[in-house]
Request: fold
Amino acid sequence: MTSPTTDPTAAAPSGPPSDDADADAPLLTDRLRHWATERAARRAFTQVDFPEPDSPGVHRTLGWRSLDERARAVAGLLARTVRPADRVALLLPQGLDYAVAFLGCLYAGVIAVPLFGPELPGHEGRLTAVLEDCEPACVLTDGPSRGAVEAFVGGRIPVLDTRAPGAAPTADGLPRPERDDVAYLQYTSGSTRSPSGVMVTHANVVANARQAVTAFGAAAGRTTSVGWLPLFHDMGLVLSVAAPVYAGFSSVLLDPVAFLERPVRWLRLLGGYPGTISAAPNFAYDYCVTRIDAEEVAGLRLDRVAALLNGSEPVRPGTLERFRTVFGATGLAARAVCPAYGLAEATVFVTADAPAEPSVTVECDAAALAAGRIEPGGTARLADCGRPVGQEVRIADPRTGAELGADRVGEIVVRGPNIGAGYWKQPARTAETFRDGWLRTGDLGALHEGRLLVTGRLKDLIVVDGRNHYPQDVEETVQSVVEAVRRDRLAAFLVPHPAGVEEGEELVVVAEARRGTEPDGAAVRDALTAARGAVAAQHGLRLVELLLVPAGTVPRTSSGKVARAACRERFLAGDLRPFPAEVAG
Reply:
């Protein structure tokens, strides 16, 4: 079977040079069938639920044969309902049914669209926009969620239950997808008004799973993935589903809410299985440090952890150090905490520090960094995000595309068999982003001694008097001197000067106050004074306004990153409600 890999009007980007190993690589479903035979009764996927606050966890497990049978049953259900290459939206809670639904879509040759249920607070608009964009032929959900999902779609889209009566395992009669067929649409985090679905092919997901497995030496019998990242998120899907199926190692799933309620649950599970690997954004590591008390730390054993990826933009060196310090006594190896870099357009995984090669923090000159150079020695600190595996990474001038040399800051561009086929129904953006086999990431960074340093997002860069400043550095400065600020819940950006274009732009920071606090006018003015002094001293910038807003106000993407552009829009529209006091001027 060959299905369209783009919208009919889309311009197909030229791909990277062919790789004989990739050309012969099996599909993910081929790997699943292999493990269903070779490791039939061995543990494949485990879901851990916590019905009570102090529950040790209720485990439900599928062996490889059972996982394969249930996935083929979903494929059979889809084959009777939709056509190959139709889109099928996944609106399920985290767990076994989600993995089964995704793998069933791959078997059926339809295009899966990993999403989330309508109960996820604050993302109803995004869900509606994505469904309108991908135009699914049906929705897959589970029994308990079906009522809410049907109410949300309002009869416009057929809703199927992954455990529908009469669904029987089958793979017979289903046309086998081609490697270049689209396997799923990975919708990137961003504005709900302009959803972007990356077309990930069957070849892409196999290649990226293999790259991740190679980077961490993962293998059946000695590795276990333990993950709470949502399965609609690129890293959650690849590390918790694709890589385990590719290599035949076990995957343990817990709900993101279970982690947020008690982060110690994640660490206990990490210590309970052999050779555990996992991933989380930067905030999660700080969250563990602040929310897990000394008694709970004393009860942890993390000597079996092989790799913990931190794939935020950016990775904060201070976070890595705090996490290693607090949990070092549990047997956690310092080298197990691995900074990484990835994005949906590359399926997810691009670079990481393998556990055999401990990560380092590069201390460089702040003035040189602002001018676009990495010069060791200074106050600016960047986390080393490792080397690429199975792909090429270069640094290019964002304006000309010319390759820059080592220790020069520019746009990160990537080429490899894991690079997606473009954006769904967006031919112009596809042509702009996927050029001659190279992916323009929109991220800024440098190659230092062959290792990637990520400095920030091109679109978020703060440029004042010709000098570059990174918003995350300004945000770190503010939260380090204003105790009332909630860590990593703030956004720095430029806004037009009230007097007009000729006066340039002004620096503003919007920051959430710590939960349970309501700063009065004096506290807000003191916060502005402290923040202004620190920002001027550290960055040579004048902070015009600091808005302290209630917890939950600063917009974030579905993967938890601060959405600075969206925050700026809300600020300019006057939609933010700060705590009392005029702080501008």
